[in-house]
Design a protein that fits this description.
The complex is a heterodimer of chains A (316) and B (252). Chain A has 316 residues and is mainly α. Helix content of chain A is 71%, strand content 1%. With 252 residues, chain B is of the alpha+beta class. Chain B has nine helices and twelve strands. Helix content of chain B is 22%, strand content 20%. Classes of the chains: A mainly alpha (316), B alpha+beta (252).
């Protein structure tokens, strides 16, 4: 437990009920982690298409929406299974409460997934001319409206910003947990999306031009650096409230999740930073793939710790 | 009309009558509490004192639980009560994360969030909350805080400087007040909560949220294969011989 007692009073709880422990656990971590990949690949694809010719990344047009589609479905599945009444998820759409970021986020994420699905069908139909055969109406319609892909993309990029960051607002609305503050969490979500997006695309970048891959490595390196800097600032210099200070002091002193946090920081941030830098010099693809894998694994650990530690505070 | 609650901690003797009355009135399942009385021991022997603090939903004017609830299951009544509609709740636990007072729990029978409603059903019938009726020393004072002549308003006026709320820095504007409280009793960070056996019970964390006998898959299957509920009736068939003796549980 986390307390900050006054020694002179020797105040000790001698009778009470058991209190809630971790309410939002690793299911929510998977939710946030998968969403970071799903939106991150959209940001990275837009950036790469802005910087390079489409021929430099030949499979990006169809693989980006496939990765986003899979990640967003994992995100939505884990959102659903975290509910104690999963079949009532529909209430978010039939009885929406618009002050809640959960509601706003669910609507936006659903719209985002719808648009990603359209891109995936168009991208796949264009990339594989025989897909679905000649009589398939869906692929036929997709090929006929191939230009829609490029028209939807700018809207998707703008929509990806609130879809990435709305979880930060949920965390800010969870006002009992002082460690989570809106401005820093919003930026952490953005950096996480850039980290996860670039890491995911690195695995499909084997056939890409060196310049495009270097750009991916650069984004990954910059994202892990700034995200690491933010975590360190929050971890060591959070003087925002008694609750945040108490919880961090507990973790600093070797309490629960201390080891997990530093393993996550090392694997997900420090190692990928140096591997990413090395790739830009050596162009060794194995190094870059290892950096991407480490970033994805470490990001999960750190997000998991950051989600759970404020929940160790006794609230009453 | 805005209903409020005041507890005079100088009067409370920790009998837990309010806790039991609440449990009975609202059929609060085992392992969960809408209202609880916390004992805190202060000082070192022989200069010691025990304080008793009843804790329940604060019915905040700016309730974080109401704001974060995605389906308006938590909503305000006209009389200021923050009520909950368990038929609408989706069990996202957002309210549990938002409430700065830890006053919301996941009901293990319904797998929905639940909390003190100031006995809204009794208020509607012109009755007092069950905990108010049960208190033998009238430490619970309940009434309309917008009516200058109500018991609670008069009590607040009488104890002007000594009326406190929990965590005022959260800007939730609670409608639940304390007289005779101090930092050690109202601030959860100002007293130590030692894990393990204490005075009468095992002060620890719950090892589950909601129904501990039903995992994620069961939540999906429950409507089709039935839900073997854990309810208060199961207490009647509780096999005490299979468990540790009372003394072993740190008895008194």
């Amino acid at each position: 437990m986390v307390e900050s007692t006054i020694h002179a009073t020797q105040a000790v709880v001698t009778l009470d009920v058991p209190i809630q422990g971790i309410v939002w656990g690793s299911i929510i971590t998977v939710n946030m982690w998968a969403k970071s990949i799903g939106t991150g690949v959209v940001f990275l694809a837009a950036y790469l298409w802005f910087r390079h010719s489409k021929d430099d990344m030949p499979n990006l047009r169809w693989l980006m929406p496939v990765i986003a589609f899979l990640s967003l479905n994992i995100f939505l599945l884990f959102t659903l299974i975290d509910l104690h009444q999963p079949y009532r998820m529909i209430h978010i759409f039939t009885h929406p409460h618009w002050t809640s970021s959960i509601t706003v986020g669910a609507w936006m994420a659903s719209a985002f997934l719808g648009l990603i699905t359209v891109l995936m069908v168009i991208g796949a139909a264009d990339a594989f001319p025989t897909l679905g055969g000649k009589k398939c109406k869906i692929t036929g319609l997709a090929r006929k409206n191939s230009g829609l892909y490029e028209k939807i993309m700018p809207f998707l990029v703008f929509l990806a910003i609130p879809v990435t960051t709305y979880t930060a607002i949920i965390m800010a609305q969870a006002s009992a947990r002082e460690l989570w503050q809106a401005p820093t969490e919003v930026m952490q979500m953005m950096w996480a999306a850039l980290m996860a997006g670039s890491a995911a695309l690195i695995f499909i970048s084997g056939s890409w031009s060196k310049e495009a891959r270097k750009d991916l490595a650069l984004v990954l390196t910059v994202a892990v650096f700034f995200s690491f800097a933010m975590y360190m600032s929050e971890y060591f210099f959070s003087f925002k409230s008694a609750e945040a200070e108490a919880i961090l002091e507990f973790v600093h002193s070797g309490g629960a999740y201390n080891l997990e946090f530093w393993v996550g920081m090392t694997v997900g941030f420090i190692i990928p930073f140096f591997l990413g830098m090395s790739y830009m010099k050596s162009e060794n693809m194995t190094l870059l793939r290892f950096a991407a894998l480490a970033a994805l694994v470490g990001l999960f650990f750190v997000k998991d710790v950051w989600l759970k530690i404020p929940q160790m505070l006794p609230l009453s | 009309m805005k209903l409020g609650f005041l507890v005079d901690l100088n009067l409370c003797m920790g009998c837990k009558g309010c806790e039991i009355a609440c449990k009975v009135e609202n059929e609060v399942p085992l392992s969960t509490w809408r209202l609880r009385v916390k004992y805190i021991d202060l000082g070192t022997f022989p200069d010691t004192r025990r304080s008793f603090t009843p804790l329940r939903c604060n019915h905040c004017e700016s309730a974080p639980c109401e704001r974060i609830c995605p389906v308006s299951a938590l909503h305000y009544l006209e009389n200021g009560i923050v009520n909950i509609d368990s038929d609408r709740c989706i069990g996202c636990a957002g309210c549990m994360m938002a409430c700065p007072y830890g006053a919301i729990y996941m009901d293990p029978e319904t797998n929905t969030a639940d909390k003190c409603t100031y006995c809204a059903h009794r208020i509607e019938s012109g009755m007092m909350p069950a905990c108010v009726v049960a208190c033998p020393v009238e430490a619970n004072i309940f009434g309309d805080i917008e009516d200058d002549h109500s018991n609670i308003s008069l009590y607040i006026m009488e104890h002007k400087g000594a009326v406190q709320v929990r965590k005022p820095e959260k800007h939730t504007n609670p409608h639940h007040y304390y007289v005779g409280g101090g930092n050690q009793t109202l601030n959860p960070l100002a007293h130590e909560r030692i894990e393990g056996y204490s005075l009468f019970n095992n002060i620890t964390h719950l090892d589950h949220v909601g129904d501990k006998n039903h995992g994620i898959l069961d939540r999906f299957l429950a409507p089709f294969v039935g839900h073997d509920k854990l309810d208060n009736k199961s207490f009647v068939h509780f096999d005490n011989t299979a468990h540790e003796s009372h003394e072993e549980e740190g008895g008194h």
